[in-house]
Amino acid sequence: MPHSDQRVRTVRRLAPVLLLGLALPALSACAGGEGDRPPVSGHAAPADRPVTVTHAMPSDITDVVLPVSGTDSRWTQGLDALPRQAADEVTRRCVASHDAAMPAQPPVSFIRYSDVPDLGFIAGHGFNAVPVPGASGTAAGSPGAAAASGPDATQRTCLTRGAAVAIDFRKAYLPLQNQWWQAVTSLKSSPGASAAFGGFSRCLARHKVRARDESAFFDLVDKRLQAGDTKGDRSLGATYAACMKPVESARVPLRERLRDSFRKEHREEIEKVRTELPREIRELEQRYGIRISFPAP
User: Where would one find the signal peptide in this protein (predicted)?
Assistant: First the structure.
């Protein structure tokens, strides 16, 4: 899984699936091991409003892997965060066993997706990174000269062990999910999806946001985040949610029909995920003392 601290505009150009998230250095070692999953954007300052979570799983686990709505997206965010929590825990155990310091890194945070936006979550929290409650948090100690020079040999070994655990877990669902994201991204060019954006720019103008389209809007969000303007970020989040609501009302049915056909085309892969993924989740939780969490608006 390629992770980076690229800015939002780079994320949108290379991978429109992901909206905003927080890069986890512990997983940087898996750049070549998870197919073409998109990079995420890194913004170190977390949102100042804590997020509430639920641990309830949907009746069909494939809704977690193949999201079509904001509600589904929350499940997907939780699934994405779980292996990063495991990687963080493995790294911490490893450095402790070597009597070494934990390498400086941001807390595990929920990632949002532009192709399936969670408007309720964005309206309440904006676009900044929101740490997973109960996650280990930032590394102990201040990020001084050692952090600036990067992890030492022991820390790199431990980061690699953590990344390997995350990669292994994702094997249960990532190949199928990558195909789904590709299908959802291709849907954006359909006449129905394109038409849904007709009033988006006019809505932004009514809210006095100077952005001609979604891309320009995210450029503005990026500037606010880079400047540490959390109040302005949340304001833009509320505006985005309001202006995207009619767009999503039109796009969700399109995604639902797409998922119906996708499930028929990938029946065997989906049945395998239904069988294996719940077991993999339970085993990861028990082995590392973590719990899968899903954000609530």
Answer: 1-31
From residue 3, how far is each of 18, 42, 261 by CA, in Å?
A: 12, 9, 31
Q: How far apart are CA 181 and CA 115, in angstroms?
A: 8
Q: What is the model's pLDDT at position 119? A: 94
Element (H, E) at 194: helix 191-196
Tokens of 91: 């790294």
DSSP labels, 30-50: GTTSSTTPPP-B---SPPSSP
Distances (CA, A) of 252 to 133, 199, 217: 29, 17, 22
Q: Which of 255, 260, 256 is nearest to 270 (CA)?
A: 260
Q: Which residues of 267-289 are buried (b: 16+ CB within 10 A; e: fewer)?
A: eebbeebeeebeebbeebbeebe
This prediction has a pTM of 0.80
Is residue 84 within 8 Å of residue 167, measured between CB atoms? no
Tens digits of residue pLDDT in 254-283: 999 999 999 999 999 999 999 999 999 999
Q: Which two three-digit tokens encode residue 113?
A: 């997706």
